[in-house]
Specification:
Layout (H helix, E strand, L loop, with lengths): L7 H36 L2 H12 L3 H17 L1 H8 L5 H11 L4 H15 L9 H15 L4 H10 L2 E6 L5 E6 L2 H20 L6 H14 L16 E4 H4 L8 E2 L3 E2 L2 H8 L5 E6 L11 E2 L6 H11 L15 E4 L10 E2 L3 E4 L1 H7 L5 E5 L4 E5 L5 E5 L15 H13 L3 H4 E6 L22 H4 L17
Antiparallel strand pairs: 1-2, 3-4, 3-14, 4-5, 6-14, 7-9, 8-10, 11-12, 12-13
Pfam family, one: DUF222
GO molecular function, one term: endonuclease activity
Protein name: HNH endonuclease signature motif containing protein
Length: 469
């Protein structure tokens, strides 16, 4: 590549060179996996073949076994995914993420997912090829293709929960717990809340150090030195009202993770420590109804509704749960036209919140439509789109956002709640997410906006639930 020095004019060219290298690497990965599948068919002994290829590929025997399995699965069950690798769209790591999702399926179902995924990716934005985004799409398709096996797969995975200790370098090791998604999310939220409390109290350790030290103290029974905030162990579970009433088994989603089986969702929501709150959604868009106010700092209900609506950081390749993100004004408050409302708010993790204002970056998010457009300093634009909380039941007419929300609230009062509401469950307060029924509002009862927007008329209570950063 010649002189390694890169001036501003050459950055764009070097980025394109990296793109070319990615394409080349993806094609070589496809060749290797297809060749391993051919060798497996010819030899008939994968274990012996893996031992023989260990010094050839210069990786561990276990890694060779994984590559052989990946090659066989791609050629037999996911040929269109393999074709995407051959055209340079996807490297081996991204393919493995998808294969892990479809692994429990029968061959016919896996091929069906393969075809549906290929169709979805034809006109998808470039960010859809990110391994995390790709796995999330595949996960939704698996539940669509084989909804009957969803609960069985979840039960089997939960039965295989475990704790692993992996020795590392420089006198360090990794302790990894494989847990049910809602339990893991609640554990992290609790540890994160305690770490942030220590940090805000003047502790000089970094947040990463504090999270690690708090975890160790809790496991060893030592005094952590701080009490977790009440909301620190809260995770959000989206459950449509008909699913909560066992009329349907669709539409359940754990924020920061994705779809989960309806039976698992109902177990979480009937936990004695779970808190129910209703969220009114427009059936035309599937989006929660807006709540607004004119003060800069968002009320607890605005922050909660934005987190419910967006679920993750709005950057197309970031999956940090919204409950761990900043509440960001899309139109700046200082400019005079940036109201503090759901219609002008979006979650951004601290990293991408800061990146938004960096020279050369242009990151726009349109809360009403759920579309993010990010332009890098060297002119490349990426687009991402938010999935609605509920599947829209009709086409929404184009109209003014504020008028639309006012009409939605008026319609609510005229008794259309059954079509417009979904139950949101805050499971695992204090880290528990397993047993017994308790609801603040029954699934069939509507909680009006005045009751839901707790404390928003009391100045002393408007700021008593501070953002996570």
């Amino acid at each position: 590549m010649g002189d390694n020095r890169v001036d501003d004019r050459g950055v764009g060219d070097r980025i394109e060179q990296l793109r070319g290298l990615r394409v080349w690497r993806a094609q070589r990965d496809a060749e290797e996996l297809a060749l391993l599948a051919d060798l497996s068919a010819a030899v008939g002994d994968d274990r012996g073949l893996a031992e023989e290829l260990t010094p050839v590929l210069r990786v561990s025997t276990r890694e060779v076994e994984r590559r052989i399995d990946d090659g066989k699965s791609l050629t037999r069950r996911m040929p269109q995914l393999l074709a995407s690798m051959r055209t340079g769209e996807l490297e081996a790591y991204g393919a493995r993420r998808v294969l892990t999702v479809v692994d429990p399926l029968e061959d016919d179902a896996a091929r069906q997912v393969d075809g549906l995924l290929a169709d979805k990716l034809i006109d998808a934005p470039e960010t859809a090829w990110q391994p995390g985004n790709l796995a999330q799409r595949a996960r939704r398709l698996v539940e669509k293709v084989d909804p009957g096996g969803q609960t069985q797969r979840a039960r089997r995975a939960r039965a295989e929960r475990k704790l692993e200790l992996t020795p590392g370098e420089h006198a360090m090791s990794t302790l990894e717990a494989s847990l049910p998604a809602e339990v893991a999310a609640a554990c992290y939220s609790r540890v994160d809340g305690m770490a942030r409390s220590l940090r805000h109290g003047g502790d000089q350790r970094t947040l990463e150090q504090l999270r690690a030290d708090v975890t160790a103290d809790l496991l060893l029974g030592r005094d952590v030195g701080v009490t977790a905030p009440e909301a620190a162990a809260t995770v959000y579970l989206h459950v449509p009202i008909d699913t909560a009433l066992t009329i349907s088994d669709e539409g359940c989603e754990l924020d920061g993770y994705g779809p989960i089986p309806a039976s698992i969702a109902r177990e979480i929501m009937t936990n004695t420590r779970s808190t129910w709150r209703t969220v009114l959604c427009d059936p035309g868009t599937g989006e929660p109804v807006d709540l607004g106010r004119t003060r800069r700092r968002p009320s607890a209900v605005i922050r909660d509704l934005v987190r419910v609506r967006d679920r993750e950081c709005v950057m197309p390749w970031c999956h940090r749960p919204a409950r761990h993100c900043d509440h960001d004004h899309e139109r700046a408050w200082a400019a005079g036209d940036g109201s503090t409302s759901v219609a002008n708010g979006g979650p951004r993790c601290r990293r991408h919140h800061r990146l938004k204002d960096q020279p050369g970056w242009n990151a726009e998010y349109h809360p009403a439509h759920g579309i993010t457009r990010v332009t890098t300093p060297h002119g490349k634009t990426y687009t991402g789109r938010r999935e609605p909380v509920l599947t829209p039941t009709r086409r929404a007419p184009a109209r003014d956002t504020q008028a639309h929300h006012a009409q939605a609230r008026g319609t609510q009062e005229r008794g259309t709640q059954a079509r417009r509401q979904a139950a949101r469950v805050d499971p695992a307060r204090d880290g528990s997410a397993q047993r017994g029924p308790a609801c603040d509002a029954p699934a069939g009862r509507r909680t009006g906006p005045a009751k839901t927007a707790r404390g928003t008329t009391d100045p002393k209570r408007q700021n008593d639930d501070s953002p996570p950063f």
